[in-house]
């Protein structure tokens, strides 16, 4: 009998998907650490977008993951992916933060638009820099909830179902809100071009509106 047993090789936790990591994280802090590294930047950017303050964003991000770790034993997916669950915690903490301070500040979406975002998807496509500027101007005039919707869809790349869970609305309600938001952006951009006397291309068309029926 060989008393010198070979130690089993530890699996690379970074290769596991979220459901597998969540199950392990209920008893393994290292697994939770992988989830933390996977989503901390996204959650921080979302909170900074909502607060406009780096220090508060850092504190609230830490609070999100502290709360997630404390309650992960009670988490079950049930159609709500772990990422969406984190965003929901962040959304609620930021809402409390605003309520306690009685102030709101949203960083322009332009600050977050980069090569990794899906902001230039067909629904939001623009022809040139001038059109992009007009689009960003129109977005800045949207109500906060609609700006959040666009951030979650085009910066965080979440599905309608995930956005609905975060904003506590049904998937159908998010599709409807998204459709109305695109129409509002189109009308705003057309108004901008009317004022300067230049024809403009609206960011959505009838065919593009049909895409709002999907994710």
Report on the architecture of this protein:
With 215 residues, this protein is mostly helical. It has two domains: 86 residues, Rna Polymerase Sigma Factor, Chain: A (Orthogonal Bundle), CATH 1.10.1740; 104 residues, Winged helix-like DNA-binding domain superfamily/Winged helix DNA-binding domain (Arc Repressor Mutant, subunit A), CATH 1.10.10. The chain has nine helices and no strands. The longest helix has 26 residues. The radius of gyration is 21 Å and the shape is elongated. The termini are far apart.
Task: Give the topology.
Blueprint: H1 18-25, H2 29-51, H3 54-71, H4 82-101, H5 129-140, H6 144-154, H7 160-167, H8 171-196, H9 206-209
Helix pairs in contact: 1-2, 2-3, 2-4, 3-4, 4-7, 5-8, 7-8
Helix amount? 55-70%
Q: What low-confidence regions span 5 or more consecutive residues with pLDDT below 50?
A: 199-203, 205-212
CATH A-level architecture of the largest domain: Orthogonal Bundle
CATH class of the largest domain: Mainly Alpha
As for the number of domains, it is: 2
Strand percentage: under 5%
CATH 4th-level superfamily of the largest domain:
Winged helix-like DNA-binding domain superfamily/Winged helix DNA-binding domain
Q: Overall mean pLDDT score?
A: 81
């Amino acid at each position: 009998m060989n008393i010198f047993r070979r130690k089993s090789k530890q699996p690379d936790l970074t290769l596991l998907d979220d459901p597998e990591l969540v199950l392990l994280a209920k008893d393994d802090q290292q697994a939770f650490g992988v989830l933390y590294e996977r989503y901390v930047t996204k959650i921080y950017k979302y909170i900074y977008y909502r607060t406009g303050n780096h220090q508060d964003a850092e504190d609230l991000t830490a609070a999100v993951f502290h709360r997630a770790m404390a309650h992960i034993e009670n988490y079950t997916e049930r159609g709500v992916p772990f990422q969406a669950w984190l965003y929901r915690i962040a959304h609620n903490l930021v809402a409390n933060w605003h309520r306690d301070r009685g102030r709101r500040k949203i960083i322009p979406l332009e600050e977050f638009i980069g090569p990794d975002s899906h902001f230039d998807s067909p629904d939001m496509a623009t022809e040139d820099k001038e059109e992009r500027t007009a689009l960003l101007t129109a977005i800045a005039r949207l109500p906060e909830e609609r700006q959040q919707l666009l951030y979650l869809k085009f910066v965080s790349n979440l599905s309608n179902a995930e956005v609905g869970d975060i904003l506590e609305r049904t998937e159908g309600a998010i599709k409807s809100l998204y459709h109305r938001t695109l129409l509002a952006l189109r009308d705003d951009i057309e108004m901008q071009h009317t004022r300067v006397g230049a024809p403009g291309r609206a960011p959505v068309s009838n065919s593009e509106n049909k895409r709002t029926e999907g994710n």
